[in-house]
Amino acid sequence: MPHEGLLPPRYDQSGLAGVLPAVAASLGVQHYAGPGHLQLPEARRAVVVLVDGLGYELIRRRGGHAPFLRSLLPAAHRITAGFPATTATSMGTFGTGLPPGSHGLLGYEVLVPGEDRLVNELSWEDGPDPVAWQPQQTVFEVAEGAGVAVTRIGPGFFDGSGLTRAALRGGSFRAADTLADRVDASLAAVRTAARSLVYLYWGELDKVGHVHGCQSWEWGDELEAIDAELGRLVRSVPSDTAVHITADHGMVDAPHALRIDLAHDAELAAGIRHVGGEPRALQLYCEEGAAADVAQTWADRVGERAWIRTREEATREGWFGPVSEVNRARIGDLVVAMRDNFAIVDSRRARPQLLALLGLHGSLTPEESAVPWFHVPARDNA
Fold first, then answer.
1. Torsion angle, CA of 122/124/130/136, rounded to 10 degrees?
2. Backbone dihedral region of 296: left (phi > 0), alpha (psi from -120 to 50 degrees) or beta?
3. What does the pLDDT look like over 268-305, one tens digit per residue?
4. By the 8 A CB rule, do 151 and 171 touch?
5. CATH topology identical between 16-251+365-381 and 256-359
6. Is the Cβ–Cβ distance between 14 and 369 less than 8 Å?
7. What is the per-residue pLDDT for 270?
8. CA–CA separation, 59 vs 264, rounded Å?
């Protein structure tokens, strides 16, 4: 049974999976028309902004740094990012409109079945072919096929990256560095065709939160800068353009003193072959025949500070949505989602830079899983 504080993931129109399909439908893409998607006002063009790390609870609590977004908050949708609440998985959900169990991007680091190794789905270093790993059609591909001009805007190294090819392929790509440059690029791109869909990604808020914490003044300063540019974007788009702003996850500050390091805890480390996932959402791949003993040990030791599920239990409770057979083996034998501000790390393999991070995410708490969906309709429809 779910414990108090767990936010069950949703993969319908009330989740992150519903954003792009609803936007595409509002642009006339018939593939996504119908009762299964949120019905938005029609628009000729749309800009969709994804601010990495902009959790709903964070913007609600720290909205003093964001007067523009705060003005939109009363009408905003509070949606769930899904599980795990991490960028690689959320980008798959956002980009395909499907749950993780269907698109297969199931965590920060997951097992490559048959190869006895983990793949980092964010960096994609030495990863499998992205299209073979995630063969489902993306919303951008569907929209482009329906005659909508699709433009994706982000840092140059995203163009052709493994995660981009897996989750966000379709349309053209424009590189821009600063947020102001990306807003300018979006304003130019949205005017290039009578029907257009522009996607803008901004990742600095997540980076600041990881390093300084999401309660830091540095995080507040970054939010202020983002808020100002988003306000300029909305004021400057053509009158037939709707603007949507959402996020891939939130964040919590996890003090180092409250963490457990598996490198120094032989009891918890026993029976585990690979430690996947990330400190707030672990996926444990066990030695043959050891899963039951590992589950009991973890339940005894950390069961009050984490939700611990077997692969079958997590699947049955809908954490990943419907799971296809080809993707099932990518999920850990045990899935551990942290409560409150707890975290478990493994310094035997994690880089020191990752171990030093203060702000973390991945679990099923509202602080991590709830994200906003701000919708500013086209002025022609206002």
1. -20
2. alpha
3. 999 999 999 999 999 999 999 999 999 999 999 999 99
4. yes
5. no
6. no
7. 98
8. 37
If you count DSSP H runs as helices and E runs as strands, how many of each does the chain have, helices first?
Answer: 17, 17
**Domain residue spans of the chain:** 16-251+365-381, 256-359
Integer Cα distance of 39 and 92 in angstroms: 22
The CATH class for the domain spanning 16-251+365-381 reads alpha beta
Find residue 281's DSSP bridge partners.
Answer: 278, 337
- Residues 52 and 71 sit within 8 Å (Cβ to Cβ): no
* Residue 28 and residue 146 in contact, taking contact as beta carbons nearer than 8 Å: yes
Q: How confident is the model at residue 381 (pLDDT cuts 50, 70, 90)?
A: low
List, as one string, the DSSP characters of 127-189: PPPHHHHS-SPPHHHHHHHTT-EEEEEE-GGGTT-HHHHHHS-SSEEEE--SHHHHHHHHHHH
Whether pTM exceeds 0.85: yes
Q: CATH fold of 256-359, please? A: Gyrase A; domain 2 (3.30.1360)
